[in-house]
Amino acid sequence: MESRIKKMAYTGLFTAISVILTRFFAGNINILGVFALRLSFGEVPIMLSGILLGPVYGIACGALSDLIGYAISPVGGPYFPGFTLTSALTGLIPGLMARYYRNYWNWFSIITVVTATAAVSVLLNTLWLSLLHGKAYLALLPPRIIGKALLIPAYVIILKLVIKHSQQVFYFTRQ
User: Residue 11 and residue 88: Cα distance in Å, rounded?
Assistant: First the structure.
């Protein structure tokens, strides 16, 4: 029982960190004076919640981060549940892969987790934007791939460092 309460508390912390990083510490990139891309580290806490707490808590963190973030600061138009789905998958995929990798987190395993999550994020979010704004999917895809490619190395380094140093804090997550 105590372990579940701690996991819920950590999920709340990861959710709050994700909302802050996504809504208040994100950078917009304009190409030729037109908004092209938004860069943010808000996915890192969601991935961490999936890896350290489990896939269910990762889903909760991702979905809550999107819902709370939109309630605080709506960016980019009306609410669309597809983005909430993508955010939930951002917590689910690392959580499921963490069960496979268990106690041997090396650089390859972290690169695999981040790349899989980034691919789903890029492909689905581009689809949602294409549906919402009526623009061609393939026209929206290249800048999103470039932006995510710029963030992947930072995601990998941050995740590796946090996972390496989190064993004392998240002792209750070991099964």
Answer: 13
**Distance from C-alpha of 64 to C-alpha of 18, rounded to nearest angstrom:** 10
Place of tokens 């995740």: 159
Supply 117's token pair.
Answer: 């999550």
Backbone phi and psi for residue 75, each to the nearest 5 degrees, phi listed first: -120, 130
Q: Is 74 exposed, middle or buried (0-12, 13-18, 19+ CB in 10 A)?
A: exposed
How far from chain centre, in Å, is Cα 133? 23
> How far from chain centre, in Å, is Cα 40?
10
Identify each DSSP E strand in the chain by its residue range.
Answer: 27-31, 34-39
Tell me which fold the domain 2-173 belongs to. Answer: Arp2/3 complex 21 kDa subunit ARPC3 (1.10.1760)
Among residues 42, 114, 128, which one has the least CA distance to residue 85? 128
The tens digit of pLDDT for each residue in 101-160 reads 776 778 888 888 899 989 998 999 999 989 988 889 998 888 888 888 888 999 999 988
Residue % of the chain over a pLDDT of 70: 90
d(CA 70, CA 54): 24
pTM: 0.89
Half-sphere exposure of 97 (CA within 13 A, CB side): 22
